[in-house]
Amino acid sequence: MNKLLRIFAVGLLALLLAGCQQELYTGLTENEANQMVAALANANIAASKSSVDAGDSRSWQVDVDGGDIPSALNVLHAAGLPRPRLTNLGELFKKQGLVATPAEERIRYIYGVSQELSKTLLDIDGVVAARVQVVIPRNDPLSDKVRPSSAAVFIKYRPGIDLRVMAPMVKDLVAHSIEGLTYNNVSLFLTAAQVLPASKLAAAGWHGLFNVWGWLGALATLLVLLTLALLLFQGRGRLRKIVAPRGRGEHRPAEQPVSEGG
Questions:
Q1: Is this model's pTM higher than 0.90 or not?
Q2: In this structure, are strands 150-157 and 186-192 parallel, antiparallel, or unpaired?
C-alpha cells in the first residue's frame, strides 16, 4: 500500500511540474530567442530558452508559464517578434539547374528589392514591422510614354515612439533604392502597434490558463482524489488493527466458577 501511495504522489508531482512551462515558440535562432526573452522580461513575464537538436541542425525554443501564454503572445506581437525571415537578392539569384526566363528574372528582382528594403526599414530603431510593395512597369522601348515606378511602404512602430518625423527620410531612402522611382511616387503609411491594457492582459491570462490547463487540472484533481482515498483507506486499516484486540477483550464472557460438589 505504501508503495502504491508513493507512485501516486510522484505522478502528481511530475504532472504539476510538467504544467509549469509551456512551449511558446520553437524553431528559432539563438538571436531570435534572446530577443524574445528580453522583450518578455521587460514586460515582467518570466521566460526561458532552450536548445533543440533536430538532426544536423540546432534550433531554439522559448518557454513561459501556461497562464502567461496569451499576454506573452500579445507582447511579442506588439514588439514584432519573431522578426520575419526575409530573402536577399543573393539568395534569389543563386545558381540553379534550370535557366530562368526573363519574366522570372524580373519577378525575382522586384521581389528581392522589396525584401531588401523591408529588411533595411526593420533596422530602424522603433520599427516593429515593415512591408514594401514595389511596382516597376515594363515600358515599351518603341513608345514615347514612360510609366514611372512606384512603391507603397507600410511601417508599424513601437508604442511610445513616433516615427512620423522620419517620414521624409524613409520616402527618400526608398526612392533612391529603386531605379526610376521618385520621391512623390512613394506612398507611406505609419501606424502605432497596439498593446492590450493590463486588465485585459490579466483576463486573457486567466482565460488562457483554463483553456490550456483544463485537461491538466482534471488529471491533477483525479490524482489528488485517488491519493486522499488511499490515505483514508490505509488509515482505516490501521485503526482496525488497533481497535480490534481491545474490542474482543471487552466482550469476552466471564468464566463460571466450577462448584466442587457439581
A1: no
A2: parallel
Return the CATH class of domain 84-192.
alpha beta
Residue type present at position 21: Q
**Picking from 46-60, 107-121, 215-229, 247-261, which range would have the lowest pLDDT averaged per residue?**
247-261
**Beta strand ranges found along 146-221 (DSSP E):** 150-157, 186-192
**Above 50 in pLDDT, residue 219?**
yes
Residue 120: CB atoms within 10 Å:
17
Give bridge partners of residue 131 from the DSSP assignment. 154
Q: How far is residue 170's CA from residue 128's CA, in Å, rounded to a whole number?
A: 15
Nearest one of 24, 17, 28 to 68, comparing CA atoms? 24
Say what the pLDDT of residue 204 is. Answer: 44
**pLDDT, tens digit (0-9, with 9 covering 90-100), for 83-142:** 877 766 566 556 565 666 777 788 888 888 899 999 999 989 889 899 999 998 887 777
Q: Strand locations in the chain, DSSP E?
A: 21-28, 47-54, 57-65, 127-135, 150-157, 186-192
- CATH fold of the domain at 21-80: Alpha-Beta Plaits (3.30.70)
- Cα gap 180→149, rounded to integer Å: 6
Q: Report which of 47, 85, 79 is spatially closest to residue 63, judged by C-alpha positions.
A: 47
Distance, C-alpha 240 to centroid of its chain:
55
How many angstroms separate the Cα of 239 from the Cα of each of 168, 233, 247, 252?
86, 10, 12, 21
